[in-house]
Predict the structure.
Amino acid sequence: MVRKFFISFLFLLAATPVFAAPVTAASTELELVSEVTSVKPDQPFWVALRMKMDDGWHVYWRNPGDAGISTTIEWTLLEGFAVGPIQWPYPNRLVIDPLVNYVYEGEVFLLSQITPSGNGLVGQVTLQGHVEFLACKEICVPGEADVNLTLPLSGQDPQINPLWQTGFQETRRKLGRNPLGWDVQVFEDQKFYFFEMRSEELKDKSLDELQFFPYRKDVIDHLANQVVQKESDMQYSLAVEKSAIVHDPQERLQGILKITEGWKGISNPWALEVDFPVQQRVQRADLRQALPLRSAEGSTVKIVPVKTGNQTGIFLAFIFAFLGGLLLNLMPCVLPVLSIKVLHLVKQAHEKSQQTIRHGVVFTLGVLTCFWLLAGGILILKSLGQEIGWGFQFQSSGFLVGLSILFFILSLDLFGIFEIGTALTRLGGVSKAGSGLRHSFLSGMLTTITATPCTAPFMGTALGVALGQPGTTTFLIFTGLGLGTAFPILILSRFPQLLRFIPKPGEWMLRLKQFLGFLLLATVLWLAWVLGLQKGLAAVMHLLMGLLVIGVGLWVWGSWGQQIKEARGRTVVGCVAVFFILSGLALCLTGIAQDSLGIRKYDQIKGLVWQPYSPELIQDLRRQGKLVFVDFTAAWCLSCQVNERLVLNDANVVAKFKELDVATVKADWTSRDPMITEALAGLGKNSIPVYLIYPRDEKAGPIILPEVLTKGIVIEALEKIKGD
């Protein structure tokens, strides 16, 4: 009887894994455990390195984040055995500002698959591994340990070890699974990666959390927030900021997505494997607007409400766009051109009311056409990965020169040196009426072009929404801007009796036209100044000399070309005029072809020093505990220049800046600068001026001031924020 019991005990012992005692090192308990109770030759099985940390201690994921060292295992196996790579469950995000680490706390199973040989195995198999890791609390302690596990051989299929069954199951739920049934795409722009995912699994659920953990350390900014947006019941988007230190473009993005589903009050976290090609796309300004500059508190994931199809939000954006377009008429860049159109309406109001209405409608169509072309151009450039915003064309020297030439020619027309309308009528053989309608259409387009350096109140919000929405919504909001801009002319053309309070056409109109010509020349001088800041004094001199030569050519044509009746004489005069005009154009273009760049200096005005913008400068100033005032401006932005001259240079405002020791920073957008464009996009802005005040608390977000400043607004904002 005793002998039978002893034999049975030996068989039972042979069928049971032989456990080595757990090893303790660096405040961590380590042991090698198996999912099965025995080994069958040639049949793979899973083992795990179980690590149990003391309270408050942690070890690191395969990508430790900004600091730390991941765990490694060096295996010693029998000949013919093979071991797969460690399978890492998703980690926790640990923030120790300004660093972010990806860690395990409590207990973790690091899985590896073992494939045994089928030759020469007898009795049992011993697995050995040498573990090196780093454990941290307030301090970090390197640890190492030797772990081993002995398992019996069996010809039968192995049984699951009930002791560790739960641990293996929970770990597999945290591993990245194959995304079957999920449509996942990865896009990028210059600063962000965007995940767009859709699945039927989400139809009756919601995502409480969605977070990306990359396998590579230098792919994303670990401290920056990741923002989720719900697009529909089955579709979500995730925006992840790129790392500033990555140098090579990522053809594929690899890592895991931690997904926490919510269903009937129950949270179900799991992981999705990420290994997808990176595609180019238009940036998502709506997601960027939800991204704080930095956040070291709590989860990096922020669920923002559905914006696609949000009819109330789009309607409000349209109203803001209309009001912004309406106020745009009061901006100094629009008034000269608009005044010329009003003069035409005054003349027509005393002739035929029906003709006046036609001109108003055609003018509106010209405004809308130009706004639609601008919207289309912006969307095309953004789809190519370009970072642009409202007024982007004024960052082009060629555009500045072209607009200078156009305004110079229009001013000569207003002075009576030559007449554009008469020339077009003769050359085209069209009626005066047709030419007039064409003039109204072109006036509408010119009004829009000259409006782009300005951002009126309400426009900033509307543009921020427009450029972050689908194409149809963008066009709708740009239509609102166009209707608002054209509205005064449309009303005056529909009710021409309002114009009859103005005196009948006469000598006063001629003098007013000449005065408006001087306003257009002033605009030319302003454009030349902007060109000088971009390309230097030589480019300005070429422009002015070119305009002088063009002016001579137009004077020749206006003085003789439109009076001489003989064809031969008109041909000679025309050739002389064309020679001068082409020579002037060549002079203008050679100026901008030069490599010399203008440098806009940051003056010390009344003791106030402006520093050039960079994200690193802002972070450094905030770490010093300073109040920071940032002025996003450009030489071509007239609203910016008015605010600077009348408000920011005011003695009382300057005194308040000095009293509170405010650091003043200029983000100069005169020339194309992707860094400033990205900063504006991160604020949900696509136009200037933008004014920010950062409080002394480094973790607090900035206050955004209105586009139109007053001394009271600035001083009150500084007083309110000075103690924060």
About this structure: The chain has a mean pLDDT of 75.
